[in-house]
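Internal ticket - ligand job 507, adenosine-5'-diphosphate:
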Amino acid sequence: MSAPTQSTPSNPDQFVIALDQGTTSSRAVLFDHKADIVDVSQLEFKQYFPKPGWVEHDANEIWDSQFSVLQRLVANNQLTPEDIAAVGITNQRETTVVWNRRTGKPVYNAIVWQDRRTAARCDEITELGWAERVQEKTGLVIDAYFSGTKIEWILNNVEGARDAAETGDLLFGTIDTWVIWNLTEGRVHATEPSNAARTMLMNINTGEWDKDLLELFNIPTSMLPEIKDSSDDFGHFSFQGKEVPIAGVAGDQQAALFGQTCFEKGMAKNTYGTGCFMLMNTGSQRINSECGLLSTIAWSIDGKITYALEGSVFIGGAAIQWLRDELKFIDDASESEALALKAHPDSRLVVVPAFAGLGAPHWDMYARGAIFGLTRDSGQAEITKATLESLAYQIYDVLHAMQKDSGINLSQLNVDGGAIANNFLAQFQADILQTPVVRPKVLESTALGAAYLAGLRVGYWTMKDLTKVREVEREFKPAMQPEIAERMIARWHKAVERSKEWVEADV
Ligand code: ADP
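stdout (structure tokens):
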């Protein structure tokens, strides 16, 4: 980890660019010194599904789309290198690329986090008795989701890959590393702890690659990127003959936690996207979950690691897509708010959106979706309202697991993501949690977090500036009687219990 460098001294008239490399699109976001968004450029890229359960991206398409949006942003805003204080990167996590260090060519498509091809291998490792050691070292449960078994699969299944890796010709990277390597034209092969923590190869207690796990998966150390701080010197990219520093990097969910300025222990954010991701800052101590949450690294600054607890809900905004695409109640997700408000006030419907089983803290992959409490007058409005409410109930369950694990009671929940634009949902969330829900002006917390990490490094912002520049758009205060909230939660839990173990293991 190196001392701060500045190619040009930053000044408030400059901008910071965040590169946000997501699962379906690449974006470049231009922020000014007030942390307001000046412009966004976005390109979608192709998803490949070669077999059931397999999900791939073309790593070159990832890079091309990411570089194109950067170029477009620069051109549209007539930016010169002097206008850009720094570039930050945030990315889809766990997705795995292996490439040749000489040619820069990937040896195989990027294997995406959703890909399940290594599930059987994960079962095998679990049966070999690794679960406890993996949890102790990495904070993770053994799962195909993480990068370790994906790298192993590439080395074992791509012709010549194993030999090339052993002679030191191949490099591995999560998407942050792949973008840095390309931006620096192959000069920098680096990552940082929030991404490295998701590979199942890093010991989160020490912040270093773990020898035992590398041996288990037979992965040569020479393939691995250097682990820097999240706010650090990741090299620069050349543009109009000048150098622009790459100075901040974090995985998408941790970047959102940082973008929401959850800098203190006990602060938490929830992102309401297709799925929902809740992270709580647990400070300099990792907390081991008793409720099936993950321990992970939030970020590392000045060599100091901050840990987090993470819980996810598989079906969040996706339930609203179901209302739109399958039930055809609405043409656009945003119409769900007005429709929910038309529901009969006495409706007691409960929707359990366990379309893909239930995650934390229920963990039942055989649960399936259900609607409870239907009466003759139940209609579109009632089902829509209950579906929106189901997002809030699921978050209630994750948050309670987090509070139980950490012993910390939340004073407010910071929210972001597409679905929380819905005021009905935001108010209901505050009511059910009996805790204020705070929605910031900039809902793009992920990009903002990457920009903050980069801006900090080059002296464009200080930590103090960041807490000051964060603007709240609206705070939703609990308005429901606690006894009513409790009754509704009890009804939700009754419904969850009845939706469990619905399908048989082999169906
Ligand atoms: P992702 O990053 O996962 O693609 P976004 O943060 O862009 O997700 O949010 C999109 C999700 O939010 C979609 O699933 C959509 O159905 C849902 N959504 C968007 N706007 C609303 C709204 N006003 N009310 C409810 N859900 C919404």
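Auto-summary: Residues 273-274, 317-318, 320-321, 333-334, 336-337, 417-419, 421-422 surround adenosine-5'-diphosphate (CB under 6 Å). The two ends are 51 Å apart (CA to CA).
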